[in-house]
Amino acid sequence: MNFLERLNSEVLVGDGAIGTMLYAKGVSLDANVEHLNLVRPELVLELHREYLGAGAKVIETNTFGANWTKLSAIGLDKREREIILRGARLAREAAEGTDAFVAGSMGPLARVKGDERELSPAETTEIFRRQALALAEGGVDLLILETFTDLAQILCALSAARETGLPVVANMAFLENGRLAGGADVERAARELTAAGASVVGANCGAGPLEVLGTIRRMAGATALPIAAYPNSGFPEYVNGRHVYRTTPDYFAERAAEMVAAGAALVGGCCGTTPEHILRLAERLAGLRPAVRNVAVPAVSVEERRGESTEAEGFLARWGEEPVVTVELDPPKGFDCGKVIEGSRVLKGAGADAINIAENPLARIRMGNIALGHLIQQEVGIEVIVHVTCRDRNLLGLQSDLMGASLLGIRSILAVTGDPARIGEQAGASSVYDLNSFTLIKLLADLNAGVNALGNPLGRGAGFAIGCVFNPNSQRMEVQAERLAKKVANGARFVQTQPLYDLARLDEMLERTSPLGIPVLPGILPLVSERNCEFLHNEVPGIVIPEDIRARMRGKEKDEGVREGLAIAREFIDAVRGRVGGFYLMPPFGRYEIAVELVRHIKGK
């Protein structure tokens, strides 16, 4: 019988951890596990045989991280195919003469921290295609996708894997409460993987057997496909430089029996599991058949509701009725908030609708903008748009601070990735980048839906108007438009752009963004001198100043430079008035009086 026929008639036992076991055999912690296929093949072969001897009927190739994104980071990308083929053939050699199946292991792609240039679906699929085809050439019986946390990425991997014609197991690593890092829950993931053609769906890794058991129970009600379960051996402890897993083989086997009763037909182990765990597992599951299941239609989940449109509130409430103007002011470098408070008050009097407060712009230390934004709203009575970066806080800190911002009455958030810490002034500071602007928008949308990143209820929604940034000065604006569409799909509801000086650029931006149907505020950064103009054009990423504008600023300094810069800004505003619903003003060097002139001009005061 082939793999799927066997799986329909009996519960199959998978193998356990590969990476942690190879490290336990003395491999250096800084060694690349997949490279061992070439430099220490006897060690990989020995581990495969240990799992087979313990009773595993499905063993995985040592190719989990053998994809271009991970291998190129360590200079092994030229040997990608060689590593994959050798990994497949080692597992095939170990299984020779047994009734065990060989599963070609494929894991998620790596992402450079802070890099917003994400691979396109076509590029992602092509990387997985190379891995899948090499595994098939190496003689595997099936492919197993595992430890994916991004639903879109595993769908690309599944598409590539299905091209081989082999059965495909699609396992995802869910967080606490059965949610993926991108927001999808168990039911949605199971439904989409089923619709995309997976042969088996399941869960692996995670917090441990009990957490995976809960996931399997939910998944069993959302799909009629066979289900796989590969839990970790509990939570790891860090002891003497290594992660130690405490779950005993007997406990692991008992929880696995419950997974079979819940619907799992393929059960193995992930991080921390050993041949001893698989031995107890095989003994406990011997003779069991897959459970009969009833598949129910689940209710609409939180993340499927979070994209529902809501009526515009706050500074956007008058969009389309009159020009909306937001103005950016920098937080102070010290404790004196007098200038920013005064600037906010004057700008409100001039007719500004909201004040933008950046978060440590250019990675320079400034006062925390959430507390400052709260103070401005209290003392001045004007709405504040707080910029939140992914650079300075991890996922835990971001959620806590955003919940605090909601508690303090902050209602508008601009999600940005943030400039890397290395360009700033604080020696020793590091960038975090647990998220980028795309995933930060997803997190904000979750908070609006009343749940945190784990799906745990918060008691109410955060009530944020979620904003994002668009760069119209890119040489390939179609790429920027694609990125913006993804941000809107994730929950963004308004856009503020990088500074614009070129009317042709604005026209193309409006044409490409109009189908998205959300407010777009073009950025206006008034010039103040020739030196300022040339600096912005030559040294600041994302800003391009046309030659005719630069020619007008030549020789202009001090008051004459400010007058010419204001004239250029007014001309631009007048040229697009009626075609845009508002503007995002960025007065240079904190000179809010320059913005006051433009606010009055826009508002007709």
UniProtKB/TrEMBL annotation:
GO BP terms in the entry: methylation; tetrahydrofolate interconversion
Q: Does the keyword Transmembrane apply?
A: no
Give the classification, highest ranks: Bacteria, Pseudomonadati, Thermodesulfobacteriota, Desulfuromonadia, Geobacterales
Supply the NCBIfam families for this chain: PRK08645.1
Q: Annotated pathway, please?
A: One-carbon metabolism; tetrahydrofolate interconversion
Organism superkingdom: Bacteria
Where does the Hcy-binding domain lie?
1-285
Q: Which UniProt keywords apply?
A: FAD, Flavoprotein, Metal-binding, Methyltransferase, Oxidoreductase, Transferase, Zinc
Cellular compartments per GO CC: cytosol
The UniProt record gives the binding positions of Zn(2+) as: C205, C270, C271
| Gene Ontology molecular functions | metal ion binding; methionine synthase activity; methylenetetrahydrofolate reductase [NAD(P)H] activity
Q: Tell me its cofactors.
A: FAD; Zn(2+)
PANTHER family in alphabetical order:
BIFUNCTIONAL HOMOCYSTEINE S-METHYLTRANSFERASE_5,10-METHYLENETETRAHYDROFOLATE REDUCTASE, METHIONINE SYNTHASE
Q: What is this protein called?
A: 5-methyltetrahydrofolate--homocysteine S-methyltransferase and 5,10-methylenetetrahydrofolate reductase
A Pfam family found in this protein is S-methyl_trans
* InterPro entries from the UniProt entry: FAD-linked_oxidoreductase-like, HCY_dom, HCY_dom_sf, Mehydrof_redctse-like, Met_Synthase/Corrinoid
